[in-house]
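Dear colleague,

Following up on Tuesday's group meeting, I ran the structure prediction for the two-component complex that the binding team flagged. I've pasted the input sequences exactly as they went in, so you can double-check that nothing got truncated or mislabelled along the way. The C-alpha cells for the whole assembly follow below. Feel free to forward this to whoever is handling the docking comparison.

Inputs:
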Amino acid sequence: MAVSDKFKQLTEKKPEIGLLFSRVNKVKWLSFPYILWMIGFILIPLIMILYYGLTNGENSFTFENISLIANPVNRGALLLALELSVFSTLICLLLAYPLAIILNNTKLKSNSFIVLIIILPMWMNFLLRTIAWQNILERTGVLNTILNFLHLPTLNIINTPAAIILGMVYNFLPFMVLPIYNVLIKIDKDVVNAARDLGANGGQTFLKIILPLSLPGVISGITMVFVPSLTTFVISTILGGSKIVLIGNVIEQQFRLGNWNTGSGLSLVLMVFILFSMAIISKYDKEGEGSNIW
Amino acid sequence: MTDNKLIDLVNITKSFGDTVVLDELNLYIRENEFLTLLGPSGCGKTTTLRIIGGFETPNKGQVIFEGKDITKLPSNERQLNTVFQKYALFNHMTISENIAFGLKIKKKSKIYIQDKIKYALKLVNLDGFENRMPDSLSGGQQQRIAIARAIVNEPKVLLLDEPLGALDLKLRQDMQYELIRLKNELGITFVYVTHDQEEALTMSDTIVVMNQGYIQQVGTPEDIYNEPKNAFVADFIGDSNIIPSLMVEDKLVNILGVNFPCVDIGFGRNKPVDVVIRPEDIDLVKPEHGIVTGRVTSLLFKGVHYEMEVTANGREWLVHSTDLFPVGSEVGIHVDPYDIQIMNKPESEDEEAALIVE
C-alpha cells in the first residue's frame, strides 16, 4: 500500500514537475549563447591560465611561476603598480566626489549634459586617448610648444610616474564619478531634510547621512578605478616609456617572449588582488551601482 | 488647546518659477492644537508645512514662532520636528540609532538617550525593536519609528506630511486613533497635512481647507462639514448637492423653482446663491408630503445606508437614507429648514479658487 501511495504521489506531482522543467528549459535556451560565450572566452582561458601558472614546460605541477613574484624586478613592478594605482584612485576620488555632489545638488537642465561630457571621452578609443596624451606631454609636444611660445620653462612629464598617473586618472575618472553620482541621486531628499530637521548642521548631515549612504558608490568607484589601473600595461607603455615597468608590462613581456607559464603565474598573483577587491565590491555594492556603466 | 498663538504665518507668498503656490496666506496655529491642512494635490498645503519646517523659504511674508521671526532660520535651529510622507528613516542605522539621532546631535548623555529610546518605542507600541533595521519593518511600523524619532526631541510642534498616505485603509484607521492618543499624551501642537477629508474630520481640532494656494475655510470639523462657506468646501468635504438658487428673502430660498423655508438671513432679496444640502439631510417621504416630487433613478446599497439618485425638477438629487425606495418609485423630497446651507456666489479673486473645476 505504501508503494502504491508513493506512486500516486509521484504521478500526481508529475504535471507540476513537467511544467517546472519546461520553464527551466525555456530560460536555459535563452541563455545558451551567453553560456557558450562564457565557457569559450572566460572559463576556458581562466582554466588555461590556472594550468599554465601551476605547471612548468613539462606539464608537471610547480609553484615556481608564482614564486617568481619574489624576484626583485617583478616585486618592484608589482609594488610600483600598486603605488601608482592607489595614487590615481585617490586622485580620482578627490576629483569625483565633489563633482558628484555638485551635480546632485544643482537641479539644472544641464545636468544630463554634464554627465554626457563626463562620459564622452569614453566613446573614443582608449588607445587613441592615451596616445593623444603622449603627444601633449612629449618633450617637443603640444604642452611644451605652448610653454615655449609663452617663454615659460618647459616640463618633463613624459616617461615619469606622474605621466602614468595622469593617464590613469584621465582614463578612469568617469568610472569613479558615475557610481558615486548614481548613489547620490538615489538618496531621498527628505532623508537629508530629516537629518536637518533633527538638528544636524550641514557638516553633520554630510558625515552622518550622505557619506555613509554614498559609500556603496564610493567602494565600487574605487574598485573600478583601482583594478584597471593595477593591471594596465598600455598606459605605462605609452606614457612611461621603457623606463617604468609595471606588473602589467612584466606579464605582457612574458607572454610576448613565449613564457606562458611565467606570465600565467604572475597573472594568478595579480588575480588575487583583483579578487580581493571584487570581494569588497560584492560585500558593499549589493545594488550594483557600478555595473550600469560597463 | 489654548488661545495662545504659537505659530503665525503672515502674508506668505511662495512661487516656484512662474507658478504661484501660495498667495498672501495668513494663518495662525494655537498652542496644543491639532490643526489639519486639507486640500487636493497642488493646493499648497505641503508647501505651507515645508515653510513652517524650514525646508522652503517664502518669497514674501513672515513665519512667527512664539513671537519671534524665524523666516530665515534654518530647519536645524527650529524647535519643531517633522514626520515625512515616506518616513525618510536612515536606512543605514538601527532603529535605536535612528531615534537617538537628534539627541546625539544635541549631545545628551547616554543614559538620557537610552531612557528616551525606551520611552519613545513604548509610546508607539514597538518595544524591543531597538536593534532592528528600518528595512525589516512594515510601512506602518516605519511610520511609527519616524514619529518616535521626531518626538524624542520634545518639539513644541510636530509637523506631519501625509504620514498615513502610504498605508492601507485598515492600518490608516488604526494609526488615526494612535495619533489622537499620542497628541493627548504629549500635549504638543500637531500640524497635519492630508488630502483625505475623513482623516481630517476624525482627528483635527481645526481644519484649514485650501485650494489653489488660497485658504477656503478655517473651522472645527463640525463647522466645515455642516456649514461649508463655499461650493469648493462643500464639494470637497463629503458628498453634497450643490444647487444654484435664488434667495427670495430672509428665511426663504427658491431652489429649482420651488420655495424652500430656510434659517439663513442677511443675503438680501432676490440674490443668486449656492445651496448645499447633504445627501443624508434629504428626507424621502410620500409624494403628497414632499416639497417637491421626483422619481428614484438609481439605487446602491452602501452598508450603513442606501445611496439613491432622485430626479426632481430637472436635476439629480443625491440621497442617503436607511429606508429603501425601489428604482422607478415616486417619492416626495423634504428638507428641514436648518439642513439648507446658503452660500454666496464667488466675487473676489481668492473666492475664484472656490469654484469647482468640473
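Chain B touches chain A through 24 residues (CB under 8 Å).

Cheers,
M.
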